[in-house]
């Protein structure tokens, strides 16, 4: 019988006991039966105390395990957060470097385009000058031919 059951039986014994008149609520009980029940309580008490102590130990172990797991979860979350922040910083740095490289490439492209345009303009100017000189030479030669001087034509063509 468990301690709870024994205590219930003791309570029933007290309820069923005879009330003594003029005693201020005192009752007459079966002392031997109460002693037997108290003996059973003493026998059951160490087992129940051991059970209670085991429950407390189990509770303590469960709490310790839960705390370790919680610490592990927090540590992993902090590591993950640090990794994400570091990856975010790497991405930001990469984007900044890419923007810088793009700006440099665009600047170099503008400079190269300007140089190519200047080179082409110079080449076209030279070609224009050469062609203008040749056109003058041709006009002079034609002019000397039309003036009638075949002897002058050889000297002017130089």
Please tell me about this protein's structure.
- With 158 residues, this protein is mainly α.
- It has one domain (3-128).
- The protein is built from three helices and two strands, in the order αββαα.
- The protein has helices at 3-16, 31-146, 150-156, and strands spanning 18-19, 27-28.
- A two-stranded antiparallel sheet has the order 1-2.
- Strand 1 and strand 2 form a beta hairpin.
- Helix 1 (3-16) packs across helix 2 and helix 2 runs antiparallel to helix 3 (150-156).
- The longest helix has 116 residues, at 31-146.
- It starts with a helix and ends with a helix.
- 0% of the residues are buried.
- The model has no long low-confidence stretch (mean pLDDT 85).
How is the secondary structure organized here?
Layout lengths: L2 H14 L1 E2 L7 E2 L2 H116 L3 H7 L2
Antiparallel strand pairs: 1-2
Helix pairs in contact: 1-2, 2-3
Strand order of the largest sheet: 1-2
- The DSSP helix count reads 3
Stretches where pLDDT falls below 50 for ≥5 residues? none
The best one-word shape is rod-shaped
Mean pLDDT over the residues? 85
Short synopsis of the structure:
The chain is mainly alpha-helical. The protein has one domain. Helix content is 87%, strand content 3%.
Properties at a glance:
87% helix; 3 helices
């Amino acid at each position: 019988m468990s301690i709870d059951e024994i205590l219930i039986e003791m309570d029933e014994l007290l309820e069923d006991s005879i009330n003594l008149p003029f005693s201020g609520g005192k009752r007459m009980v079966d002392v031997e039966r109460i002693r037997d029940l108290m003996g059973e309580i003493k026998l059951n008490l160490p087992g129940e105390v051991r059970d209670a102590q085991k429950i407390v130990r189990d509770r303590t172990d469960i709490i310790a395990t839960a705390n370790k797991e919680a610490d592990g979860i927090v540590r992993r979350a902090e590591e993950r957060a640090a990794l994400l922040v570091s990856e975010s910083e790497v991405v930001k740095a990469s984007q900044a470097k890419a923007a810088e490289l793009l700006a440099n490439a665009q600047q170099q492209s503008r400079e190269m385009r300007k140089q190519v345009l200047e080179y082409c303009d110079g080449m076209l100017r030279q070609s224009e000058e050469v062609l203008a000189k040749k056109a003058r030479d041709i006009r002079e030669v034609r002019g000397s031919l039309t003036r009638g001087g075949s002897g002058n034509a050889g000297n002017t063509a130089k």
